[in-house]
């Protein structure tokens, strides 16, 4: 896109943010009554819903494009499915799930949460995480992970720590945090990072497009900082939710 | 800030981690086999004129496909490997397509109507770990090697020349992204470059970094649920840089060699490249051994050697030379017997009994203590 400045001279991005600023995050837990845990998150214009069922008995339900998973004797099985609505992108998508990209997202979510959830506490059982993207405006992986974290917490499943994710990019020598769709489509490097904030351990790291090795540290640092900011916000949401729930219970 | 230097141990380790890399080309352009240790991947590029995608009217189409068949490993049954397949395919796509290594605009023939669709098919022939590295090398080598037919446009007419009319044209490739895999063990304490199949089975997780020789990172992907620290990632990227340089040189050399051979009219293709005389091939020439004077030599040694503790020992010793039979051990289970190696003897004795001063040496040198086991005759 020639002529569209991703970063102006004064340091403002296309939507008026500064380089390290996140978009406005609003989140709500306990959205559905039927599921064990659910959450809804809005990161700017990206909207994601996550629903958690579990831990329940491991059934031999055939996942879409997956293999029959048997119950593991020493830990729980984490099953993730990602689906993005047909109206979520600018052009109407044909297949909401089952295509390669959705499968890959599902696998990545599974990998992230298998590392974070204390699966040893629930042997021979299964935890299902379903994520649905309602509007995709950049940073879909990050929004999914954040929503799923809240949903897992809502379900009361023990985790090592919050899993907070954020995307980052690199334009004109500056690292940008939390990319929007416009910035992603411009074709520059994009990094998606899922972090456990307390220990600083990286649960998932994914990067696309060319980035010189020397700039890697800068971009990683920006993404890590943004993920920690997300953590502060999510922490506040969880505490608020617990406070509301305890008020209703009359404590 | 100065960059942390690579230690000599690390450097040597890296270089040895790449045991045997070989790239061979087929007779057609765009066909190659890459061997990384024992893992073998076949890559084939083909092209076709199609109408372009609606939202990208001036760009050609790139299509990658990796197949895992049961030929590679019996575990790859047709229905069962979808997780791995999706992961590998997506990684390859992201590494090669999103990094824009091929100039897709140059693949356009008539904007909005006709563009080239380049299809890269990769087949795994033998699975000994680290499919991603081998597949990425195969894909990029096949693309560099490929020649597409020449096309000319005059007004509304598009003429497609056959290879006989005009020489086929190579694709325009900006850079060569190559994947390097790192396997993590024991929560990140140990790190192995280019894991083989056994190592992959026990690893905690895998980190794949795709770089090109200009030290630009094209893709990073961590998988397997390992917890990484930032400096581990940075260290891996440095190691990847070193490895990618070497592999790029190897690719250039292989391409140049092939080009030279084709120009000089020599023989090329897979049949020529598969060597017959390798040490790892199962065929070996018969080595004739002369055992005519073994008896005298044996007698000499025995008479000069120290008297053994058991009489059985002598009997079995003579048995070896006279009957050329496997070792007959005595029946007592516990004691340790001193046995000479039967296959090594003829040549060794001949050379060593010549020098008078070394009489005692052969009996001691080629002696090997061995625990007794039941003989199988």
What is this entry, summarized?
The complex is a heterodimer of chains A (251) and B (377). Chain A is built from 4 helices and 10 strands. With 251 residues, chain A is of the alpha+beta class.
Overview of the molecule:
The complex is a heterodimer of chains A (251) and B (377). Chain A is an alpha+beta fold and 251 residues long. Chain A has one domain (18-249): GHMP Kinase, N-terminal domain (Ribosomal Protein S5, domain 2, 2-Layer Sandwich), CATH 3.30.230.70. Helix content of chain A is 30%, strand content 29%. Chain A has 4 helices and 10 strands; from the N terminus they run ββββαβαββαβββα. Chain A has a 5-stranded mixed β-sheet with strand order 1-2-3-5-4. In chain A, strands 7-6-8-9 form a 4-stranded antiparallel β-sheet, sandwiched between helices. The termini of chain A are far apart. The mean pLDDT of chain A is 86. The termini of chain B are far apart. In chain B, a hairpin with a 2-residue loop joins strand 8 (151-154) and strand 9. Helix content of chain B is 33%, strand content 25%. Chain B has a domain at 18-273: Ribosomal Protein S5, domain 2 (2-Layer Sandwich), CATH 3.30.230.70. Mean pLDDT of chain B is 77; it is low at 344-377. Chain B contains 10 helices and 16 strands. Chain B is of the alpha+beta class and 377 residues long. Chains A and B meet through helix 1, strand 9, strand 10 and helix 4 of A and helix 2, strand 14 and helix 5 of B. Strand 10 of chain A pairs antiparallel with strand 14 (216-223) of chain B.
